[in-house]
Design goal:
The protein has 239 residues and is α/β, with parallel strands linked by helices. The protein is 24% helix and 34% strand. Strand 8 and strand 9 form a beta hairpin. The N and C termini lie far apart (39 Å). GO terms for molecular function: methyltransferase activity.
């Protein structure tokens, strides 16, 4: 086991193939229209971050994984982004950011949710927007995270890869699971992940306490109403 779930160079190189740009990135890019300064919190490989670059716009990417950021810095267009290693504690309280985004369910990996949204609020200007998504706990996605349901094999640039998830523990909205990645040489890169499933009410409470005055939570990327069948919580909060 290692602390960084994205610490394997071979797997990081596959990340963008497994998580390509889609309607989630379209949503965040649309929010960035007309902004002068954007912060991507938990930017990972920087696929979305680099696409936010525009003439006259400052773009900042923050991530706690040195491996992910190392990959991000090597990609085309990376020189136009300011990359910062760290978690919410390195976010500067400048009060001049127009938009802060956090894609890929990043906020679910954050244990100190209230502190994180507080740090992002301090970075935003009055009227600035924070947007992110999280899995809806009512959909109980973890029930499908069994080795039988998730096992797969595929050919990758790292060779033949066998993959599956193994659920370890569920406690008070905190879900722990191991992601197994077995390479051709038999090496099993096992990465322990912890996700925090928070309800819309819990997320809203933290945002209001952080100083956000307007919180909207949809059930999808196109403004779908939130209900128990919604898989996603798409969050948008204005400071």
């Amino acid at each position: 086991m290692i602390d960084d779930p994205y610490g394997d160079e071979q797997l990081v190189e596959l990340y963008d193939l497994d998580n390509p740009s889609g309607e989630d990135h379209d949503y965040y890019r649309a929010l960035a229209a007309g902004t002068a300064k954007v912060l991507d919190f938990g930017c990972g490989t920087g696929l979305l971050t680099r696409s936010l670059v525009a003439p006259g716009r400052v773009v900042i990417g923050v991530d706690p994984s040195p491996t992910m950021l190392g990959y991000a810095r090597r990609q085309s267009g990376a020189e136009a982004v300011t990359w910062i290693d760290g978690d919410h504690r390195v976010v500067r309280p400048t009060g001049d950011v127009d938009l802060a985004v956090s894609s890929g369910n990043t906020m679910m990996h954050v244990a100190e949710h209230a502190a994180a949204v507080g740090a992002l609020a301090a970075a935003l200007r009055p009227g600035g927007v924070l947007a992110f998504e999280s899995r809806n706990p009512a959909a109980r996605a973890w029930e499908q995270w069994t080795s039988e349901a998730t096992y797969g094999e595929r050919d990758t640039k790292a060779g033949r890869l066998k993959e599956w998830l193994e659920l370890i523990e569920i406690a008070n909205g905190r879900v722990t699971f191991d992601a197994h990645n077995v390479f051709e040489d038999g090496r099993d890169a096992v990465y322990r992940n912890v996700l925090y499933f928070r309800s819309a009410d819990e997320i809203t409470a933290d945002l209001l306490a952080a100083g956000f005055s307007d919180v909207v939570i949809d059930g999808g990327w196109h403004g779908e109403p939130l209900d128990a069948a919604s898989h996603l919580l798409v969050v948008r909060a204005t400071k």
